[in-house]
Amino acid sequence: MRTAEIIRTTGETDIKVTLNLDGIGKSEIDSGCGFLDHMLTLFSKHSKFDLTVICKGDTNVDYHHSVEDIGIALGQAFNKALGDKKGIERYADTFLPMDETLILSATDISGRGAFRYNVNIPSNRVGDFDTELCEEFFISFVRKAEIALHIKQFDGTNSHHIIECIFKSVARTLRKAVNIDEKFSEEIPSTKGVL
In whole angstroms, what is the distance from residue 105 CA to residue 145 CA? Predict the structure, then answer.
């Protein structure tokens, strides 16, 4: 099983993340932010990764530190759980519709962090969640996961739908990218011989 546990403690947050890439999509999420809990729960469901996220953060300030640090810890867990990356598909993409919204996500599990985010979220907040934190979460995740990730919006007018569609699309893309190709299960999918 490809699993990892990350404990991250700073002056702003205290986080525990566990991740099983070969799970069934079960989750236990308590980020301190209801909207992020919703996003991480559906991320787990659509990726089929088993995920635990427990965060005690300085939410009396706002959700920025918690969202950013959860992204960091989840990225670290993802990278660690992948191990040597033998046999993974490596590349994947997903066009995902949700009502009026259409999002494309694409990834390369390359060992190099690169992020492109072409999204227009019309409102500044969904509930008490600052919508700019969606981008911050994925910036942090990509840096520590050491992957290339592109997120592009093709349609969408409802801020909740846009963010939810992003999390679902990325989840399904990562699910495909980490899938083991049994025919090449002992090979690193790179001419370099390492990712």
Answer: 16
Contact predicate 74/82, CB 8 Å: no
Of 12, 5, 119, nearest in space to 61 by CA: 12
What are 80-116's pLDDT values in tens digits?
999 999 999 999 999 999 999 999 999 999 999 999 9
Instruction: List the one residue out of 121, 13, 140, 152 whose CA is nearest residue 79.
Output: 140
Sheet holding 91-98, edge to edge: 91-98, 101-108, 148-155, 114-118
- Exposure string (b/e) for 88-105, b if CB count within 10 Å is 16 or more? bbbebebebebeebbbbb
Q: Which pair of tokens denotes residue 65?
A: 């530190």
| Model pTM above 0.85 | yes
